[in-house]
Structures are given as C-alpha cells and as structure tokens.
Design the sequence.
C-alpha cells in the first residue's frame, strides 16, 4: 500500500504540473510546448532520485548488491584476477551500499561494522559453495574468482569508508562452519583487506590455526586435477604466504612493549614451516614408489620455495639464512632411526649417484647462501648437538663435496678436528663420525676426495698418527676397529689388513689380534684374503671385482711396472713366496693366458721370460702355455678363435650416452653450476659400473705417471667405445656451450668433466692416447670443431696438472724417460712438430685455439694467473710458427685489446686472422715477456733445424729471408734476459753452435731408436745447411769486428770462443763413465763437423805488439792434445779435414803479418814441440795437403813455400828416394818426423815388407825407434779394431819383429818405449803425446803380444838386456791391474774376429805372459835383477811370481836350465 501511494503521489505530482490534458493541440503547438514540459520535469529530478532510492532500499538484496560493481571494474570482474584497483575517487555504488548498511544496522540495532562483516562473509561462503572443485579445495575456479574480485572491490570501498571492520570480519571468518580456502585468504591479504597476520592473530586457538594453515599449504602443493590452468596462481599464492611465514618466523622478536597476541604470530609461522619440512622429506623419501606420485609432485612444488630468487628481496638475508639453516638442521636430524652401525653397513648405497634427485635438489638449493666453510661448521654443530639421520647426513656430505669442490679441504680439517678430539677425550662419537665422513667422501672418487685407504694410511700409518701419543690411544683405536668388525664390508677390512695402523713392536700382539678377527670376518663374508689382488683397488667400498678380473688387472699392472723399471715387481716376487696359492691359481693363469704370440717380443713375453729365468714359473705350466699358444696360432690360421672376448652389455653405453647428452643440455646455462656438478657425478658413477678391471683405480696409481704412446693401442672394445664417446661428447658440448656464451661466461662444466675423467685412470689413459694419436697422426684431417674441442680439453688438463698424475715418456719419445714425468700438454707439445708444411698449419691451428681459449677462460686480469692456464709450449710454438707462416707478423704492429674468441666462432674459421689476432693481443705480448714462456734464440734454432726443406711451405728464398729476419732483426738486438743475443755477435754464434750440437744429438737419439745405429744419422732432411750458412755469416761479421778492434781490446785478441763452447758443454755430461765417454765422442764429432765448416782463421788469434804481428793458436793445440788425441784420432792421426783446416787457416792468417815466413815457422815449431799429433797427421796426409797448400800460397805470394812447409816437402822427397833405392842423408828435421814420413810412405806404396831392409841403411837410433813406435801403434790399432783380413795382425807382428831385429843387430836401445809410466821417457817422450790414453794403456798388451812370439835366438838376445826383466815385470803388473780394474784390455769389435784372428783373449794373454815370465826369469843374469823393486811390483798381484824372483836371486841360475812352472796352473 505504501508503494502504491508513493507511485500515485509521484503521478499526481506530474499531472499537476501540466495544463488541461483533454484539450486538443495542433502539431506546432505540441512541438512548441515540449521544452517547457522538460523544464518542468527537471525541477523535480532530486525528488525523483530520492523516490527511486527509497524504492530500492525496500526491494534491494544486500548480498547481491555487494557482488555488483560499477564502471570499468565490471569488466575486470570477468577478466584478470590481478587487475588494479579502480580510482577511489571514482563515483560508484559504495555510498549507496554504505547508506543501506547503515540503515539496516540501525533498524536491526547492530553496529554497521558487524553487519557489513556478516554480509561479506555470507557472500564469501556462497562463492565457495558455487565451486566445481573437489571438497576442501584451496583453489577457486574461474567463476568463483570473478565473483570474488567484485566482492573484494566493494569491500575495499567499504573499508575506505570505515563501514567494514577488519577485526569483526576476522571473527566472522573463524565462526564460519567451513574455513575459507587458501586462495581467498591470499586475495584478502593481497587486497589489504585482512592480512594473514591479522587473521592468524585474531584466533586465540593457535593450534587450530597451525593445523588449518599446514593442511591448506599441503593441499596447495598437491594442486588440482587441472594443474596447467591454475599452476601460476598456485605458485604465486605459495610464494606470498611462505614469504610472510619466513619473514615473521625467523625475525628478531622485540618482546618489550609488543602485543602478546602479536608475539604468538612468529611462533605460529615458525611452527607451520617446521611441519612442512618433515612433510617434504616424507614425500622425498618415497621418491621411488609409484603410488605416491602425487606426493612427489607436491614435494617438487614445495622445493621451488627454496629458490632465493623467488623471494624477490622481500625477506632480509639474515632471515633467509636462518630459515635455510633451520631447514638443513631438520633434514639432518629427521627421523633418526638408523644407528651408526647401520650407516657403516649401508653407506655404500648413499653416495651421490644413488641419492634421489629430489633430495639432491633440496640440498643444492640450501647450499646456495652459504660457503663451504660455513656448511662444514654447521655440519659439525649438528653432529655434536643432535641425534642425526645418518643417511641424510652422509648423502648431504656427498652432495656438498660434488657440487662445491672447495669443500674437500674444509672436510679434511673437520676430520682432523674430530680425530684430535676423539683421541684427546677418548670420545667414541667423534671417531665414528670421522670414519663415516671419510668413507663417504671416498665413495665419490679420487677426483672429489682422497681414497679411504690413503686417508687411513695418512691418519694412522705412521708413528706421528693420531693414535701414536700413548698406549691408551692405541688401545682406543684398536678397540674401535674391533667393534666395527661385525658391521664392516670386505673392502674396508682389506684396507685395515693391508695398511694396518702403526704399532710399536711391543704392542704388536694387539694388532695381530685385530687382524685375526678381521680375517675371520672376511671368511664369514666368503672373501678370502688369499684372493686379494696384488694391486686391488681399495679406495672405495664397492664390491671387489671377480678374482679372474682382479688377476688380469694385477698382470697388466705388473707388466707396466716391469716396462718402466726393467725389473720384476717386488709385489710379484713376494706373492710367489708368501701368497703362493693366489700366485699359482690366479696370477699365473691370467699371465699365461693362451694367445697368438707377436713376431717380435712384447713386454708380456719379456716379463714371462724373466719370471722363467728366476724359476717363478713351473716347467710344466710354461710348457703348457707354449703349446696352448701354438694351438692359438694354428686356430687363427684356420679362421677360428679359441677364446671369445667378453661381451659387454649394450645398456651401460646407452645410459652413458644419455647422461652425456643431458650434460650438453645443462652446460649452456652458466647459472646451472650445481646441476652440472650433479650431472658430472652421474657420468662418473656410470663409468665406475662399466669396467671391472680398472688397473689404475688404486690410490697409489694416482701418483704414478701414465705411460703414453701414440702408436700403441692396448685397449678393449668397451674402452675404445667409451673413449670415443667421451671425446665426441666433450667436443659437441664445447661447441654448444661456446655458441651460447664465451669461455669466461660458461659454467665450469669442462673443468669438472676433465677432473671427473682424471678419477677414472683407465678411461683417462685411453682418452689421452687417442688425443695424442689424433694430434700427431691425423692433425691435418681434423675439422675445426675437433681442433677447438681437443685444444680446450688439453687446456683444462693443463690447469689441473697439480691434481693430475703426469704422463711418462714412451719408448718412442726422443727425450729420455723421466721418473717424475711431465704434464700432458708438455708431452703433447713434443709431437706438435713443424717439420713439414702440413704439420706447421695444424700446429698453428691447435696452438692458436688452445692459447686463445686459455686466455679467454681466465676471468682475472692478472698475468700471473693467466700464465697458469696457458701451456708454455703452445705459447712458444705460436711465437715460432706465426711469424714464419704470416709475414705480416714480422712487422711492428699495434696491440689488440678486445677479446679474440670471436675469431674462432662460426663454421668456417680464418685461422690466419685468428692467429694474427692472438699474436698481436696485449695479453699474449705480456705472456711472451715472462720467463718460461719466451721463445729463446736456442729454442727457435731447434725448431728451425727440424724443418724439412723439401716439404716446407716456404721456398728457399722465403726461408732465407725469414731466417735473416729472425737472426738479425729479432734475436740479435734482443736482450739476453729475453732469450736474445744482447747485440753481441759472439753470443749469437755460441747459441747457434750449441743448438747445432743439441739438434744433432737429438737426431741421433731418434735415429738410433728407429734403426740399429749402424751408421750416423743424415741431416740432409733438415735445415742444418741453412743454419750453418747463418752461422758463417755471423762469424764473418764478427771477424770484421775483431779486425777493427785489433790491438785495442786484449780480450778480443785472446778469446777463442769457438773452442770455449765445446769446453763449456763438457761439465753437463753427468753420466756414467761409459755413457759419458760415448756422449763425449758424439759431442766431439758434431763440434768438429761445425768447426771445419767455419773460416779456418778462427783457430788463430792475431796479436799486435808494436810493429810486429804474431799468431797465437795454443788453444787449438790444447784442444788437439786433450780432445782430438783421445776421442777423434784414428790410426795414429786425426782426420784430414781438421788437419787441412789448420794449415789453411795458418796460411790465410799469416799473410796479414809483416813476415809470413817467420810467422809460419814460429807456429809450426810450436806445433812440433807442443802438438806433435798435428804434425804427425800432416805427415800422414801430406800427399793430399801439399798441392792444396801450394795452390793457396800462390794466391797470396809469388815466393816459394815458407821454409817450414818446404821442410815437409823435402822430407817427403827423401822418403820417396829411399823407397826408390837412393840412399841419401836425411834432411835436417826431427828424427820422429823423418821416421813418420818413411813409415807412412812405405805403408802407402809398397807395404812394410821392405822396411827392415831400408832401416838397416839408417844408422840414426831415434829414427829407428820412432819407426818401431809407429809399428807398435799400428799393432795396438789392430788389437783395438781387428782388420777383416786374417793376415792383418800377422803382418803387423812380423813388421815389429823385423824392426826389433834391426835394432838388436845395431845394438840400439828400444825397450824403454814401452814404459809409458816412466817420468823420464828420454828422447822418446814426445812419442807418447801423439797417442791416446787408451793406446798408452795397451802398451803392455802390445809387449806380450809381440815379445813372447819372437824368434828364440832374438829373444835370448833381448833377455840379456839389463832392463828387460824390470820392463817385463812392470808391463805385466800394469796389464793385470787393468784387468782387475774391469777395463777391457782387448776390445774386439766382433767375437768372430777374436776367434778367427790370432788375438788372445785378455785372460789368456795374462796367462801366457805369466808363463813367459816364469820361463825367462831363470835366464836373466842375477846381477841385473833389482830384487826389491821387482818384488814390490809383484807383491799383491802374483805371489808366485814374487817367489820365483826371490828364489832365483838366492840361487844363481844355470843358463842351461829353465825354471819349471808349478803344476798348480
């Protein structure tokens, strides 16, 4: 009725405002009245509006009104959830709703805040009931979310008008039968209507709040059936709520002056988070169960909350660290049901590779905010104050070690602290913890941590160990180990038995008791200690390999040691005695496995022969082995195979391939360092499972150099397949990673990959051998991506050289074997030769890639740090090869500062541009100035000498231009400290000569290893001649310097730098006596070869004293007397080349003097007196010297030859005339020179048969003795180097005998020429300075080879000489002493020569000499025997000979009788 009256009122009001309605109007009238009517309506607009409002108040539903929204927001209600709030000043329906709420509150006698809260809560509940989600879902559907958005807008407006009360709204929420869903709570929090803190604090029942919030968070993580649609909103809700919980749960609470209710909120937040960690771990631990897949998904969802980036700076770092610390503590202490004994037994299954990925992800996320040191410290605190879950503790430790390599050192320190504490306080928990952690770390392999056996030896293997302080400490350790025995696995018991703790001898019984108990435990485990391999891998707790596999491993390791040492390994010898069952039943069958024997003996065959020689292989077993090998050979020829190779399953290769492919995917993101570490650990674990006979797995082998050989392959099919797969994967991953990021911005995947590979020695050996073979044999055929990948691989190996055992030189290397070995990069550098154009180009490509990568890899600007990453050999190679192949590099150029890696990107690399860019780069220029990286002049010469001109990229003219540039522009001006010559030509010449000699020696070593060393190596395939030309040019320039400085600088006048070079090299020959002698001969041969190639004037120095110029060549005389005399003379003389070189230099130099004839005479007179060997050689070669010297002299002077040379001509003419039968008086020259001319002339022309006839015509004693002396030297030469003709030695002996006959006929003294030890050799002293020390030592041999065989009549004449017996006794004593000293007094080049010729063997010669003396002593006149002297000589050598002398002295001899030799001989 009221509404009707109101409507009638409104109608009557409208009618009263109009004229008579019944009067008809025309159309114009009607049109004219409209504006007036409009004005009448407007005047009552406010009244109308009020009427409508009143109407709506009585008919509007308040709940529906709250769900309505005006303006543009109505669109947003059906659109995005997160639309921005509309402008508060925008006019809307809020005033109407507010007035309506106020009116109803007044009517109902309620506060408007309470009414609005109830109305809003009713609408929220209605929205929740409209959902299609399952019961108690925490996520709204799209319709619910749209309606809620409209409601929230109106609630915000009501809050701004103070109509809605937050507190009463919170109370209404908790009064509701069904609690609000988590998404609604989140919206209220985000819209700042009711914050989560206000909502939680408003409920006094904290337990109910905790349960509700925990359950809803769990449901939120579980998600809905349609996860894809709601995943983003789920993550946002969880992130915001967790942010609130962490920020409040782990903050510093200020208790003073705070509301008690507010103080409960941090505790509630802490409790909720505290419940979430066990819930998470429950799901993680059930990771492998399929029926809890939903729980796994929920766990993954919650794990995302541990991403630091997800908090967006909303939480302080301190609060976040507290949260992560608490979470880690909860993980380590979660459900501690396992005892330490269980951990000891089961920890092998808790390594990184076997830990679930969810748990590993959780660990890695918690590690982000902490350093390794902080984490280890926290570990220690938890272990000391809590009861822990050992599985979580140990798996967490493994993850920490793998993902943060720097943890290793901190863990070692923790272990040390635990052991110190345990032995100081005898605390059992500390030592248990230490052993568990050490074993767990060792499970991850040697690339991560030292092996358990190594740790145990370091800790307890010496008197300085932790247990060595007292008996109580020892008892504590042994009791602990004893208590462990029932729970130990076999491998750890083996470690304790093989590497027992150090025990003093008086406590040995205690250790034996433990070892006995451990062996009993091994027996219970059905593991025989006798089956333990010689080199079994005891570094891990994995199951031991099968006995057959272990025996094969021991055989390979023993052969490797035998190759390196040349001796049977001590472990094999010990096993053959103390572990005979294993040796006979395991080791020998593996060693003597039947096979097809190679044509030439390999290491295995030599090893077997060595064992057979020392009776370590039974005859029956060896015979069976030989027959089995013969059967293998027969079956091979028939096309059958007697033994089948082990078939490896395909599955492991597939798993490894998948793991490597996954590494390629994760390596592209630099931020995925933890993921990369985890994936590397997975690859490492897979490699461990793929091979059993890992003979490099023992910890001791990690310190042993790897034996590499580019030409030998001793790997099985599985190793070859894995090797190729690893290299291929590395190169592909490297290419992919470099396409995304430059080297310095990549993750550490490559370094971790290489470090991981270093822990698998057998695979590492295979990979290194393959890299070596590729670079040394197939370098030119490698694609650019392969070159880049191999170069990067080598660089990372070089960086890890401190942790990687070094490779050893193979037998094919040109360098001597090294016990310590060298780094792989250094070893590989030897094979990167530039001898041909093809090798030079590859060397430039590889070294450019390696150096560029190493420089770009370093993130530091310190050149010292960069140097550690760059292999020095590669830097030196670039310094040599780039200027050689790229002429632009020889010019002065500016520096390049920007990175050069971009030059190596793309499918087609311009290597010339890349090489030139790195050569000009500032960092490279700084590197080449550092010591150890400089390419010195000597290094450059060694590289250039190795170039083969026929295969060189440079033509002869281009090579000459390059060498001139290097010698004169690059190295000659460079300071000595930089590897140059310091502007000194003489220094340059010295360096070149040393390089030529070093290169020749190196070439000879290579030649001998490739051939039988029957002849000297040829240098025709090298740049030897070119470098000799450069040396000649420098010497020529130096001579000009000397000529200009003549008389001004005494040092220049007296310095014989050429001979000094040789003398300076002698102290470096620190070898054994025999090796040093051979090395010295080689050095001398090379030096003489260089010497004769240089101007002969270098042998002389001019000295100008006022107006007179003299020549000085004492240095060359000394060189001849000391070096050439002993090691270079042949058949009494030095070679023609060096002799001619001296005389040619003499003539060339003497013409510069004022009186050439006098200068020549002075020099030759000095030669006669101080260097007779030179004059003797001139006598021998005079027929060849004379025409050349005459021709040379005529070029300088029109006069005749100098008088001393003319004497030589006269001597030769005199000898020729004697030969023709014309007896003339000899020229006025030294007797020994005349004798030499006569001897050599007869020897050349008609032989020595007529020599006695001619000598009878010569009355001079000295000439006769000189000729006899030369004949004796010829005899000694025949003994040293037996002639091929059987009559050679006979002829020489006859010649000497004839000469002695002549001397005896003429009653000349000649016996003293055999007494080399006589200080006063009289007129024959000069003869001894012409022969070598070896020939002087062989004078006794010549005496006893000659004298006993003389004619008896002649011999009886000789015996009557007064000095015969003393000479004979002295020579016999010297011969025996040489024999006793171990010197070969007879050196036959061939045993056949010794047997076929009349040469006596050394012992036979001594025996016959002794018999000769015993026969001749009675014939000697008694008065001529000096008894004391002779007895003293025979005292310690031959007592019987001494007795014979004494007996004959006491009883004068009867000349008709002979002394009978005792029958004892």
Sequence:
């Amino acid at each position: 009725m009221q509404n009707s009256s109101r409507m009638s009122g409104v109608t009557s009001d409208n009618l009263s405002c109009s004229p008579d309605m019944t009067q008809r109007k025309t159309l114009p009238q009607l049109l004219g009245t409209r504006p007036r009517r409009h004005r009448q309506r407007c005047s009552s607009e406010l009244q109308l509006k009020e009427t409508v409002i009143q109407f709506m108040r009585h008919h509007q539903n308040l709940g529906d009104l709250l769900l309505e929204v005006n303006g543009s927001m109505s669109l947003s209600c059906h659109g995005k959830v997160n639309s921005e709030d509309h402008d508060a000043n925008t006019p809307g329906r809020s005033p109407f709703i507010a007035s309506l709420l106020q009116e109803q509150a007044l009517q109902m006698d309620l506060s408007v805040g309470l009414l609005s809260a109830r109305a809003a809560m009713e609408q929220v509940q209605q929205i929740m009931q409209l959902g299609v989600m399952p019961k108690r879902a925490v996520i709204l559907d799209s319709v619910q979310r749209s309606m809620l958005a409209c409601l929230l807008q109106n609630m915000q407006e009501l809050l701004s008008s103070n109509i809605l009360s937050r507190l009463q709204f919170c109370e209404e929420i908790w009064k509701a039968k069904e609690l609000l869903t988590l998404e609604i709570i989140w919206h209220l929090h985000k819209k700042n209507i009711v914050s989560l803190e206000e909502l939680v604090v408003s409920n006094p029942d904290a337990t109910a709040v905790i349960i509700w919030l925990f359950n809803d968070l769990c449901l939120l993580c579980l998600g809905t059936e349609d996860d894809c649609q709601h995943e983003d909103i789920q993550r946002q809700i969880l992130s915001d709520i967790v942010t609130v919980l962490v920020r409040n749960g782990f903050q510093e609470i200020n208790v003073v002056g705070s509301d008690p209710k507010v103080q409960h909120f941090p505790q509630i937040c802490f409790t909720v988070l505290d419940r979430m960690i066990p819930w998470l771990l429950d799901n993680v631990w059930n990771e492998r169960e399929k029926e809890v897949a939903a729980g796994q998904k929920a766990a993954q969802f919650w794990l995302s909350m541990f991403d630091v980036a997800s908090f967006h700076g909303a939480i302080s770092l301190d609060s976040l660290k507290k949260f992560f610390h608490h979470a880690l503590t909860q993980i380590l202490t979660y459900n501690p049901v396992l005892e330490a004994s269980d951990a000891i037994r089961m920890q092998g299954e808790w390594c990184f590779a076997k830990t679930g990925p969810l748990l590993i992800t959780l660990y890695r996320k918690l590690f982000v905010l902490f350093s390794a040191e902080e984490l280890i410290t926290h570990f220690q605190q938890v272990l000391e104050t809590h009861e822990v879950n050992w599985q979580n503790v140990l798996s967490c430790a493994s993850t920490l070690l793998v993902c943060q390599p720097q943890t290793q050192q901190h863990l070692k320190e923790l272990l040390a602290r635990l052991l110190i504490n345990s032995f100081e306080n005898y605390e059992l928990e500390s030592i248990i913890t230490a052993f568990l952690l050490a074993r767990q770390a060792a499970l991850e392999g040697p690339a991560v941590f030292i092996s358990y056996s190594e740790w145990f030896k370091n800790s307890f293997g010496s008197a300085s160990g932790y247990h060595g302080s007292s008996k109580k400490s020892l008892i504590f350790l042994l009791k602990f180990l004893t208590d462990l025995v029932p729970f130990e696995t076999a491998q750890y018991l083996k470690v304790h038995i093989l590497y027992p703790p150090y025990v003093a001898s008086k406590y040995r019984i205690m250790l034996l008791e433990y070892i006995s108990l451990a062996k009993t435990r091994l027996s219970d485990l059905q593991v025989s200690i006798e089956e333990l391999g010689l080199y079994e891998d005891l570094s891990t707790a994995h199951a031991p390999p099968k006995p057959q596999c272990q025996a094969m491993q021991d055989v390979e390791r023993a052969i490797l040691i035998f190759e390196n040492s040349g001796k049977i390994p001590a472990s094999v010898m010990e096993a053959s005695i103390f572990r005979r069952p294993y040796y006979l039943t395991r080791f020998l069958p593996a060693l003597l496995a039947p096979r097809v024997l190679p044509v030439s003996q390999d290491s295995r065959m030599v090893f077997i022969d060595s064992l057979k020689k020392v009776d370590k292989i039974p005859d029956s077993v060896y015979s069976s082995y030989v027959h089995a090998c013969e059967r293998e050979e027969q079956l091979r020829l028939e096309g059958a195979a007697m033994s089948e190779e082990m078939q490896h399953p395909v599955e492991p290769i597939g798993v490894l391939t998948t793991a490597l492919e996954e590494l390629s995917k994760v390596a592209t993101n630099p931020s995925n360092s933890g993921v990369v570490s985890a994936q590397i650990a997975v690859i490492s674990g897979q490699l461990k499972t793929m091979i059993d006979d890992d003979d490099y797995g023992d910890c001791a082998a990690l310190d042993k150099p790897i034996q590499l050989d580019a030409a030998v392959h001793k790997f099985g099919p599985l190793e070859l397949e894995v090797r190729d797969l690893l290299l291929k994967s590395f190169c592909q991953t490297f290419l992919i990673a470099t396409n995304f990021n430059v080297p310095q911005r990549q993750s550490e995947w490559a370094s971790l990959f290489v470090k991981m590979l270093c822990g698998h020695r057998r695979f590492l050996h295979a990979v290194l051998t393959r890299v070596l073979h590729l670079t040394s044999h197939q370098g030119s055929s490698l694609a650019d991506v392969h070159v880049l990948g191999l170069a990067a691989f080598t660089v990372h190996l070089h960086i890890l050289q401190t942790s990687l055992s070094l490779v050893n030189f193979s037998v094919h290397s040109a360098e001597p074997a090294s016990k310590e070995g060298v780094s792989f990069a250094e070893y590989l550098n030897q094979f990167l030769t530039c001898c041909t154009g093809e090798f030079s180009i590859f060397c430039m490509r590889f070294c450019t890639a390696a150096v560029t990568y190493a420089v770009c890899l370093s993130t530091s600007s310190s050149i010292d740090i960069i140097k550690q990453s760059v292999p020095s050999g590669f830097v030196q190679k670039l310094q040599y090869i780039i200027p050689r192949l790229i002429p632009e590099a020889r010019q002065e150029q500016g520096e390049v500062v920007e990175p050069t890696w971009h030059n190596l990107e793309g499918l087609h690399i311009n290597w010339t541009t890349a090489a030139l860019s790195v050569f000009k780069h500032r960092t490279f220029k700084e590197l080449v100035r550092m010591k150890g990286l400089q390419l010195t002049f000597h290094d450059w010469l060694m590289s250039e000498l190795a170039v083969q001109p026929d295969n060189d990229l440079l033509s002869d003219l281009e090579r000459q231009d390059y060498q001139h540039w290097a010698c004169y522009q690059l190295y000659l001006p460079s300071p000595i400290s930089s590897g140059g010559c310091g502007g000194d030509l003489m220094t340059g010449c010295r360096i070149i000569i040393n390089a030529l000699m070093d290169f020749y020696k190196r070439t000879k070593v290579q030649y001998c290893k490739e051939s039988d060393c029957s002849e000297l190596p040829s240098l025709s395939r090298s740049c030897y001649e070119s470098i000799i030309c450069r040396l000649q040019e420098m010497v020529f320039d130096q001579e000009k310097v000397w000529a200009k400085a003549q008389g001004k600088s005494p040092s220049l006048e007296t310095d014989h730098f050429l001979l000094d070079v040789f003398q300076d090299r002698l102290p470096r020959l620190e070898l054994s006596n025999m090796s040093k002698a051979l090395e010295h001969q080689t050095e001398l041969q090379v030096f003489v070869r260089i010497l004769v190639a240089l101007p002969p004037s270098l042998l002389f120095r001019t000295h100008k004293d006022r107006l007179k110029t003299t020549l000085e060549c004492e240095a060359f005389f000394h060189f001849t007397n000391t070096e050439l005399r002993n090691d270079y003379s042949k058949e009494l003389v030095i070679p023609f080349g060096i002799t001619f070189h001296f005389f040619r230099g003499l003539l060339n130099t003497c013409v510069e003097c004022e009186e050439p004839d006098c200068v020549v005479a002075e020099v030759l007179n000095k030669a006669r007196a101080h260097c007779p060997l030179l004059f003797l050689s001139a006598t021998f070669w005079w027929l060849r010297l004379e025409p050349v010297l005459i021709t040379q002299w005529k070029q300088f002077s029109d006069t005749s030859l100098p008088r001393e040379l003319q004497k030589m001509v006269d001597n030769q003419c005199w000898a020729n005339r004697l030969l023709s039968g014309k007896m003339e008086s000899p020229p006025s020259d030294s007797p020994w020179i005349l004798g030499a001319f006569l001897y050599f002339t007869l020897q050349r022309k008609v032989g020595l048969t007529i020599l006695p006839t001619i000598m009878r015509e010569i009355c001079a004693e000295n000439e006769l003795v000189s000729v006899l002396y030369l004949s004796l030297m010829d005899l000694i030469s025949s003994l040293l180097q037996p002639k091929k003709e059987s009559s050679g030695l006979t002829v020489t002996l006859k010649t000497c005998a004839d000469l002695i006959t002549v001397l005896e006929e003429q009653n000349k003294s000649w016996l003293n020429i055999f007494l080399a030890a006589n200080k006063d050799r009289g007129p024959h002293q000069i003869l001894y300075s012409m022969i070598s020390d070896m020939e002087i030592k062989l004078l006794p041999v010549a005496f006893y080879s000659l004298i006993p065989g003389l004619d008896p009549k002649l011999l009886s004449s000789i015996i009557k000489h007064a000095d015969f017996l003393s000479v004979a006794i002295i020579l016999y004593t010297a011969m025996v002493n040489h024999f006793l000293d171990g010197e070969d007094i007879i050196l036959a080049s061939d045993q056949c020569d010794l047997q076929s010729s009349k040469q006596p063997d050394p012992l036979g010669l001594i025996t016959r000499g002794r018999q000769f003396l015993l026969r001749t002593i009675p014939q000697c006149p008694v008065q001529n025997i000096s008894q004391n002297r002779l007895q003293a000589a025979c005292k310690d050598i031959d007592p019987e000979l001494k007795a014979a002398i004494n007996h004959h002295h006491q009883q004068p001899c009867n000349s008709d009788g002979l002394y009978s030799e005792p029958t004892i001989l």
